[in-house]
Amino acid sequence: MMQFDKILAILRWFRNQMLFYIHIPFCDSKCYYCAFNSYVDKFHLKDNFIEALKKQIIFEIQRYKIQKNSIETLYIGGGTPSTICPLKLKEIIDLIKPNFDKNIQISIEANPNSASLKWLKGVKSLGVNRISFGVQSFDDKKLKFLGRNHTSVIARLGIENAKKVGFENISIDLIYGTSLDTKQSLKKELEEIDKLDINHISLYSLTLEENTKFFEKSEVANDNLANAKFLISQIQKRGFEWYEISNFGKNSYSEHNLGYWRYKDYVGAGAGAVGFLKDRRFYSENSIEKYIKNPTFVTEEVLSKDDMKFEKLFLGFRSIVGVNKNILNQNELKKIKILLDEKKIMEKDNRYFNKDFLLADELALFIMNS
Ligand SMILES: C[S@@+](CC[C@H](N)C(=O)[O-])C[C@H]1O[C@@H](n2cnc3c(N)ncnc32)[C@H](O)[C@@H]1O
Ligand code: SF4
User: Fold this and answer.
1) How confident is the model over 48-78, as pLDDT tens digits?
2) 111 lines ligand 1 (CB under 6 A)
């Protein structure tokens, strides 16, 4: 019998199904750790940016030959989408709406500082059915240390308001691995999680990125494996499934991110957005000014078969997606056999699944290095 995932892949191919990502490159303030493409001093360009974004969306719908009912997920990320009023977001969503699958998951990222009750009501009425708050921590001292512009009280209020206006899928981003973290402080964060009505957590280990305040300040980080394991096990104990190295859901996934890890095609629109089709990545201009001048311009990167295999290995072992046997050569399958014998991975329906996502990169490198 044909495997279920093969049937799905064929159906998807016929219907040309894909994901849609929109990047909003504005933030109210710049957090000390963040290298995402976002600007705090370009708000005067907002209207022009939205007009440019609309042009790109119309262009991409044609370029990707998007058909009716074929958009499985829409993800509005950034930067900070809650800096854009619902009326403007409506203009953007309306352009893509005719192509929505009937079960589409529409996610939006929000900073608690700008996600007011009015904004939340507005985006809910547009059909957005999943919201992801950048919370980072419930400890005000840690929030200040990270350069966040809100307190824990505001974060909690945002989450409660989202529930009030009817959001059933609520996610929070948390950051750990800072020099302020102790087992005690992490226990307190978990106690705060217990008080929340949320069904998804993204848990990120602090990375020190170039072009951020934290870059080359190793003293701000504390990459402690024991703390990571403690947090992961405690979140799992609370009924959240660990489905990707940084993501946990209670009967709920970020379908959009799962789509990335499954290597699906995606449109990327907005300054700094990335798109993907078959074996090509498309990078829009990072600069808002350049983007406004030429919103349909993209730099193209062609991926080799090996590039794609490498990515599929990393993404597959970092998540419940797993790795398809058919992409591996004889030599790589010999390595797989070693990992199976050592019980580091398991096999099901011609796919290999990693049991401990923290080991994902190690496993992928072991297989790829001849
Ligand atoms: C686009 S932001 C989320 C929405 C909104 N901009 C906010 O911050 O409230 C994406 C998330 O990436 C995570 N992140 C960004 N840079 C990071 C870094 N250097 N280390 C760890 N996590 C990071 C943060 O948890 C952040 O919430
Ligand atoms: S973490 Fe979010 S709010 Fe902070 S700078 Fe990055 S995108 Fe902006």
Assistant:
1) 999 999 999 999 999 999 999 999 999 999 9
2) yes
Where does CATH 3.20.20.70 sit in the chain?
15-261
Q: How far is CA 128 from the centre of its chain?
A: 16
Answer whether 240's CB lies under 8 Å from 232's CB. Answer: no
Query: 176: which 2 tokens?
Result: 């750990």
Query: Which class is domain 15-261?
Result: alpha beta
- Ligand 2 center to 179 CA (angstroms): 20
Q: How many CA atoms lie within 13 A of 347 on its CB side?
A: 12
Mutate to test the pocket of ligand 1, among 36, 137, 173 (most ligand atoms within 8 A of CB): 173
Alpha helices in the chain (DSSP H): 4-15, 46-63, 86-96, 117-125, 140-145, 152-164, 183-194, 225-237, 255-261, 288-293, 305-317, 330-341, 360-368
The residues with which 299 forms a beta bridge, in sequence order, are 283
C-alpha–C-alpha distance, residues 213 and 140, integer Å: 19
Residue 176, SS3 per DSSP = strand
In angstroms, rounded to a whole number, what is the distance separating the alpha carbons of residues 254 and 246? 12
CA–centroid distance, residue 321 to ligand 1 (Å)? 23
Identify the residue whose C-alpha is closest to ligand 1 atom 3: 134
pTM of the model: 0.95
pLDDT reading at 1 higher than 60: no
For the stretch 81-115, pLDDT in tens is 999 999 999 999 999 999 999 999 999 999 999 99
